[in-house]
Amino acid sequence: MGKKVNSSGQLAANITKSASKQTYYTIRLFADSDRVADAYRAYGYFRWVDDVIDGELGSSVDRIAFINRQKSLLESCYRGESPGALCAEEWMLVDLVRNDSEKNSGLQTYLRNMMDVMIFDAKRRGEVISQVELFEYSHKLAKAVTEAIYYFIGHDDLSFCHEARYMAVTAAHITHMLRDAMEDVEAGYFNIPHEVLAAHGISPQSVQSQVYREWVCERAQLARGYFKLGHECTSKVKNWRCRLAGYAYTARFEWMLNTIERDNYCLRSGYPERKSLWAGLWMGWSALTSMFDSLRIKTEPRKPTPQPVRVDKR
Asked: Taking 50 as the threshold, does the pLDDT of residue 309 lie above it?
C-alpha cells in the first residue's frame, strides 16, 4: 500500500502544480508538514474530477454516472470498505480517507461538501439554476474550502466556528462566477438565477445586456461586503500561516473584483492581465498589508457586525 500512497501523492502534487501554481506553493510553504501530501491530494483529486466533468464526458448521462461513481467511492471509503479496481486519480481519494483519523474532521467536511458541488455542476450543465440553488452552491463550496484551509494549515491552533468564517470564500466564489460567466455560458453553465431572467425577460446568454450588468453590480457589491466581513474574521485566526494563506487566497479575487468594477460591470470573455507581473505584485502586497494590519488588531474576541452595502448604479 505504501507505493500507492506515495504514487497518489506525487500525482496530486503534479496536478496541483499544473493547474494552479499559487495553490501548489501555498501548500508547500504554509501547510502543516505532516499534511502537505494530503493537501495536494485534496486539491488534485477534485481538480481532476472537475476537468473530467467539464471536458472529457460529452453526455449528461456519462457525467452523472461518473460523479455517482465518485460519490459512491467516497461513501465506501468512510465505511472502511476495500475499493475495487480504481484509476490512479481515484487512489488520491482513497488515500485521503485512509489518512483521516479524526471524527467529523475538517477534511471530511471538505470532501463531502466539495463532492456535492461537483454533483451539482455535473447536473446543472444546460440548465438554469434558481436563487436558492445559487446560494447553496456558493455556501457548500465556501464551507469546503474554508474547512480545508483550517484542516491543513495550523491544524493544532483552535479557530472560531461561527458562520462568518465562510464569508471570505463565499465572496471569492461570487467573484469567480462573475469572472467566468461568459466562458461558462459557452460551455453550457449559466450562473444567473432564473428568477432574474424571468423578471426581466432575458436569456441566460444575454451577458452584455443592461439587466445582466445591473445584476453583476449587485453581486459585486455583495461580494465586497462579504470580503470585508471575511477579513475581520481572518484577522482573528491564531495561526499566522493560516492567516496569511487566507489573505493570499482572497487577494486574487479582490483584484478580479476591482477589475470588474473598473469595467463598469461589463463582463469579458477573458482577463489575461490577472496573470501579469503587476497583478501578482498587487496581490502579494494586498496579502502582506492585510497581514500587518491584523497584527495591530486587539486580540479580544469581538463578533463581526454586518455593514450596510451600497449599490453604485451606473
From this structure: no
